[in-house]
């Protein structure tokens, strides 16, 4: 009997031990949330892009200097011939993929966009921004997007302690008789304002997927709440501390890794790349939307291709097929080898708008914003608006100089209909072109989501004992 009991006990202990070991080897995790109040908060990277990628001022300048022949030839080419995907060939992306450096020359510069910059109660300049290129928005500019060792730590909340930008979107009148082609299949362009991306410091911005629009004529406040995600590596998880493969200057994020994986898949299957995805420097690989020898085709309309004939775009069709496949089937993700970073900061956003700038302060604002600028660099619409408002201000200034009872003179000053129209036109010009953007922390508390082993080695030994 004793032997039987020993055998039964040993068998039960062995079975229990095997169950405990199996439970341990599953390496399951639990996620705990904790509010931390005593740690500094990383200020995010902030990327801004003009929603209208092309500067009409630069186009006008190129026309005046006879430096726009390639642009004229491309527009003439797309109107002369037919394409299976006319929507794409009339798009900003096709313009960039076929003209390259010419497209970059007429995109916006930061020195033209950025009128005023303050961060944490101190002045900032264009030197605090880094530039990147996006196939849909062209030139984009990132604050706090430089070296990872130069991270900005925040210790105060509110708009006064965050980033405050005053931006001019360069909304100028088009050349007489010239109009763009509205693309009904594009849901992100053909509007005025800036596209803003608030993303983890040092990470790759994705304006189309993660950005939001800020309109001109308003002061936009973006309040942020920081979230910290701490994940476990092997054997409990598969997070990684590696930098982004293919673009070493950026931190790894799961989304950016997948975008690069899509680009590699496209290059492998179509032997071309897409301007809608992060660019990879691969030799002898062109964009899928490139029309080889389009200049020669345009010049010789009676040769291989005749006027109004449809020109084949095989690579573009391949890109569309692969993109549709990737968007409808996520099984490709298992081949990409993309993993979440072991430590990652994200931000909850709340956005509010207010009318800006009030007409009462517009002249003073213009004089302040552009007092340091070279007159030749000041945008045409700003010269007109400032001139209008300055002329309207003269009668009041004369009243102030005449006597001390100037309040009555100011209140009784009357303006003609043309002067009122002038004031309205100046105000419209200002509000159609300027915006203020405040991005700040609402709370210094950080919500940390931390992974912990659900059943660790200490738990195993305790249960065995």
Automatic annotation (TrEMBL):
Origin superkingdom: Eukaryota
Cellular component GO terms, alphabetical: plasma membrane
GO molecular function: ligand-gated sodium channel activity
Gene3D superfamilies xrefs: Acid-sensing ion channels like domains
Subcellular location: Membrane
Transmembrane segments annotated in the record for this chain: none
Sorted UniProt keywords: Calcium, Ion channel, Ion transport, Membrane, Metal-binding, Sodium, Sodium channel, Sodium transport, Transmembrane, Transmembrane helix, Transport
UniProt-annotated glycosylation sites, renumbered to this chain: 284, 308
Entries under Pfam families matching the protein: ASC
Mode of membrane association: Multi-pass membrane protein
Disulfide bond positions: 49-140, 117-124, 239-342, 257-338, 261-336, 270-318, 272-288
Chain positions recorded as Ca(2+) binding sites: 463
Family statement drawn from the similarity comment of this UniProt entry: Belongs to the amiloride-sensitive sodium channel (TC 1.A.6) family.
UniProt name for this protein: FMRFamide-gated Na+ channel
Organism: Aplysia californica (California sea hare)
């Amino acid at each position: 009997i004793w032997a039987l009991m020993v055998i039964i006990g040993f068998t039960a202990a062995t079975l229990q031990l095997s169950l405990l070991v199996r439970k341990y080897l599953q390496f399951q995790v639990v996620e705990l949330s904790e509010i931390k109040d005593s740690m500094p908060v990383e200020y995010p990277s902030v990327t801004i892009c003009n929603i209208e990628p092309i500067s009409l001022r630069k186009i006008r300048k190129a026309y005046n200097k006879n430096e726009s022949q390639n642009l004229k030839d491309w527009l003439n080419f797309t109107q002369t011939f037919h394409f299976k995907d006319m929507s794409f060939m009339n798009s900003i992306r096709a313009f960039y993929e076929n003209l390259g450096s010419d497209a970059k020359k007429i995109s916006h510069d930061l020195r033209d966009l950025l009128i005023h910059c303050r961060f944490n109660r101190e002045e900032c300049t264009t030197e605090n921004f880094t530039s990147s290129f996006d196939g849909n928005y062209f030139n984009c500019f990132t604050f706090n997007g430089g070296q990872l060792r130069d991270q900005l730590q925040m210790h105060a909340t509110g708009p006064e302690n965050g980033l405050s930008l005053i931006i001019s979107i360069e909304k100028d009148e088009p050349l007489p008789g010239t109009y763009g082609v509205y693309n009904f299949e594009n849901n992100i362009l053909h509007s005025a304002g800036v596209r803003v991306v608030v993303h983890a410091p040092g990470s790759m911005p994705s304006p189309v997927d993660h950005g939001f629009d800020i309109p001109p004529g308003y002061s936009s406040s973006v309040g942020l709440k920081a979230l910290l995600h701490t994940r476990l590596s092997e054997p409990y998880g598969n997070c990684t501390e590696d930098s982004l493969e293919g673009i070493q200057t950026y931190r790894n994020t799961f989304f950016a890794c997948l975008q690069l994986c899509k680009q590699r898949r496209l290059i492998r299957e179509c032997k071309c790349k897409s301007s809608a995805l992060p660019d990879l420097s691969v030799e002898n690989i062109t964009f899928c939307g490139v029309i080889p020898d389009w200049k020669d085709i345009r010049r010789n309309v009676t040769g291989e291709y005749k006027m109004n004939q449809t020109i084949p775009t095989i690579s573009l069709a391949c890109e569309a097929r692969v993109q549709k496949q990737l968007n409808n089937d996520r099984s490709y993700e298992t081949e990409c080898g993309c993993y979440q970073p072991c430590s990652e900061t994200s931000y909850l956003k709340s956005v509010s708008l207010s009318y800006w700038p009030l007409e009462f302060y517009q002249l003073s604002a213009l004089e302040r914003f552009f007092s340091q600028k070279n007159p030749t660099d000041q945008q045409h619409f700003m010269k007109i608006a400032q001139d209008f408002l300055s002329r309207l201000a003269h009668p009041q200034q004369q009243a102030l100089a005449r006597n001390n009872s100037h309040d009555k003179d100011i209140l009784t000053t009357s303006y003609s209909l043309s002067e009122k129209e002038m004031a309205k036109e100046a105000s419209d010009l200002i509000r159609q072109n300027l915006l203020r953007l405040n991005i700040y922390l609402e709370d210094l508390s950080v919500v940390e989501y931390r992974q912990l082993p659900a059943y660790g080695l200490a738990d195993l030994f305790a249960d065995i004992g």
